[in-house]
């Protein structure tokens, strides 16, 4: 699973770099050459890439434990209390993101069925960007399941040491 998280994270990194180059080319073209990337749909493509940057990196960020957390309270708890609190948080986050997967998958399927597209000079189908949300959220759910199992294992081991 770690390799898939890493691949999705690299895809998010690539999207960030591509978006940076597209926006830079648009700005430089507009102000230096009085010519924009008309017909390319830079605005729409950057919006789609922002979705990828956010959702494709979620599971990898969780694997690194790099999401924002409130250490003010957790740092005052004993190790076992910290582990229990963290596990409860993972369970709640798993439930939340499972609902996100379910609802965004349904929305993506609808978008695909009706042929939803952007409005503008170039029309882009919306469903690929909508697909990124449930895929990234599903990977995060898998990561949460792994973290919950790992924490429960640690709790059982720490309980055995206390006995």
Can you tell me about this structure?
This protein is mainly α. It has one domain. The chain is built from six helices and no strands. The protein has helices at 2-32, 42-55, 58-63, 71-74, 79-114, 127-162. α1 (2-32) packs antiparallel against α2 (42-55) and α2 (42-55) runs parallel beside α6. It is elongated and about 70 Å long. The chain starts with a helix and ends with a helix. The mean pLDDT is 91.
Question: Which tags fit this structure?
Answer:
single chain; 163 residues; mainly alpha; 6 helices
Quick synopsis:
With 163 residues, this protein is an all-alpha fold. Helices cover 78% and strands 0% of the residues.
Explain the layout of strands and helices.
Blueprint: H1 2-32, H2 42-55, H3 58-63, H4 71-74, H5 79-114, H6 127-162
Unreliable runs, pLDDT <50, ≥5 residues? Answer: none
Percent helix, as a range, is over 70%
The termini sit apart by 35 Å
How much of the residues is beta strand, in percent?
under 5%
């Amino acid at each position: 699973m770690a390799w898939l998280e890493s691949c999705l994270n690299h895809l998010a990194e690539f999207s960030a770099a591509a978006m940076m180059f597209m926006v830079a080319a648009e700005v430089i073209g507009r102000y230096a050459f009085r010519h924009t990337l008309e017909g390319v749909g830079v605005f729409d493509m950057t919006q789609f890439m922002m979705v990828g940057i956010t959702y494709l990196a979620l599971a990898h960020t969780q694997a690194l434990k790099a999401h924002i957390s409130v250490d003010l309270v957790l740092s005052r708890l004993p190790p076992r209390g910290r582990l229990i609190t963290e596990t409860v948080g993972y369970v709640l986050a798993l439930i939340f993101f499972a609902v996100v997967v379910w609802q965004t998958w349904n929305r993506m399927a609808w978008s695909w069925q009706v042929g939803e597209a952007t409005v503008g000079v170039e029309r882009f189908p919306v469903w690929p960007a909508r697909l990124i949300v449930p895929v990234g959220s599903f990977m995060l759910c898998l990561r949460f399941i792994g973290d919950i199992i790992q924490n429960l294992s640690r709790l059982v081991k720490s309980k055995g040491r206390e006995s």
